[in-house]
Amino acid sequence: DVKVTQSSRYLVKRTGEKVFLECVQDMDHENMFWYRQDPGLGLRLIYFSYDVKMKEKGDIPEGYSVSREKKERFSLILESASTNQTSMYLCASKSSYEQYFGPGTRLTVT
Amino acid sequence: AQRVTQPEKLLSVFKGAPVELKCNYSYSGSPELFWYVQYSRQRLQLLLRHISRESIKGFTADLNKGETSFHLKKPFAQEEDSAMYYCALSAGGTSYGKLTFGQGTILTVHP
After folding, report:
1. Do B98 and A90 lie within an 8 Å CB cutoff?
2. How far apart are CA B88 and CA B82, in angstroms?
3. pLDDT per residue as tens, chain A (110 positions)
4. Cα gap B57→A94, rounded to integer Å
5. Residue A79, min C-alpha distance to chain B (Å)
6. Could you report how far apart the first and last alpha carbons of chain B are, in Å?
7. Contact A103 B43 (CB under 8 A)
């Protein structure tokens, strides 16, 4: 079974803090993704990575950056958290057939 | 750029009734279409993809290129079908499998 894990289920941070969300997959997938999930907006792609140290912006990259130093780990970084980044964050990794999702991190920025 | 639209935010049916969740897309090339489902307190998971043309949990979806639609159907809804459903599109080619999602439809099946 593919396993995608995310470092935290719930996170509360203050405005202006630097936030790290981590994602680990155990299936040697090359492609990994970060989405945010908001009611009424569905899932929107923030960033993705197609190999170690390789990354590309998704549809809503502003205010975020990513890091992929090892194949199994893909980190999302909020450089200076803001209240409009309060959301559910989903990580996914992709086989040739489908994307496998992590359980999500619900981030609240106060 | 591609776009996926799910016009219904909420859909309620009774157990045993037919259900159809609508999905329309816009994309100039040949897309891959998917339905993902998220049950309560579970992670998002693939339900079906148009290429495999299979039926999963009694659900089917046919890609209609003329109407640019990929509606999800089930003839007899069950209470365990209650969930959030997302339609998604992949552009294929060098898109690395990026998915564009619709807004989602919450399906509630009443007993």
Report:
1. no
2. 19
3. 768 999 999 999 999 999 999 999 999 999 999 999 999 999 999 999 999 989 999 999 999 999 999 999 999 999 999 999 999 999 999 988 889 999 999 999 99
4. 23
5. 24
6. 41
7. yes
